[in-house]
Protein 1
Amino acid sequence: MSNEVYPYVVFLPSERKDKILSAIFGSKASLDILRYALKNGVSNKIYQKDVVKSLSYSNKTIIENLKTFTRLGILQEYMEKSENMGRITWVKVYRLSDIGKWFALLLAEEKELSNKEKMEILQNIFRNYIGWVKDLSEKLGMERAALRKIFDDEMSKGGG
């Protein structure tokens, strides 16, 4: 039996770390909402009415979790105009934020993701990581040239 290990990196805002982790891992409903978003496509819209229809939780439970996720920045909330038989209504739409995508991806199997999604995730993680390293190196008074040299050395190594 093979036990493959995947590196998971999640950047958390330090002031909300406990609240975010509790909101996500505190209930099965919140995990199922993230799984629903993942199954729907990490960059796709999530309609509140579809989440309510698809998951076997009360409307109240789902809406409370969606509100919490929005408040914590895991989801971004929008109102979208919808026209049905000449009648205009507004529907709630959500999208996973960058941090929301990372959490949804913790629940994903690699084979469930398209190469395009994997590339988008890699670029996003790399951009955020580089930003974090740059900020930390500036606080430490480190020269950018030292980081650039490390990057160039690693990129010039064989294997890809």
Protein 2
Amino acid sequence: MAGMSNEVRKNIRAWGASADPELNQKTKAMFASLIDPPSGVTEALDIAYGDNPRQKLDVYRVEDGRKNKTIVVYIPGGGFTGGDKRQDPVFFGNVGRFFARHGFVGVCANYRLAPEFQWPAASQDIDNAVKWIKANAERFGGDAKKVVVFGHSAGAAHVASYLFDPDIRGGDKVIAGVLASGMYALRPGEVRANVARYFGDDEATFERRSALTHVGGFKVPVFVALSEFDPAYLAAPAFEMARALTLRDKKAPPIVRLDDHNHFSSMCTFGTSDTAFSAPALRFIAANGG
């Protein structure tokens, strides 16, 4: 684990592979003191991009006079029924501030949640958030033509649907996507209860509602990430997505396995000395027009 202590590495390995809320809390508590302080970044919080209370986003930027910056939009996880862009003073402002400090406009966006709002509501929200961001890019120093969407866990599932669903077609609207530790296909016997609350449990709909089904119809560049200690049901889909992108592009996509990380620690590293995830993410964005 580059830049991190042996104690952090030891704890993550000892805790093992899980996506349980208890592990989320322990991991974030361990990383909170390692995040760079928030100084130097201007924050505009809880900006509405729709009428629902969940349809809000935060914008992070450095006021350096530069214009036409690439905009990186982060979509957090939460098991389809929870999660928040700013669940505490540290996370996930650490992601927005990280990108702001590296010459981008950082955005963290919420979306409507299951069971009240089901598929494809969250991906439609990403679409509406991106539309708002493009319409208002200039006021934040951003370039409306250079937007990257980045999702983790359930957020990655929503971003994948946004990018590849033939009715939303986000892959035609952004320059790139980053998918981390998400679920991209629905299969009989493998849909967990929280997933069914969003996607439904009608097996006849699974193929249509699986982002993986539609990858071949879009050329948008995608970077795939997973953690060594992701639970299997969230690690295996990364390889399925990489396979689909390989068949689409006739070459392997950028993919990284984050050694000594669990499902939650990967996003906790943004703004720390551990650059195992953030460095290749930055390289990918730069290589694709960012």
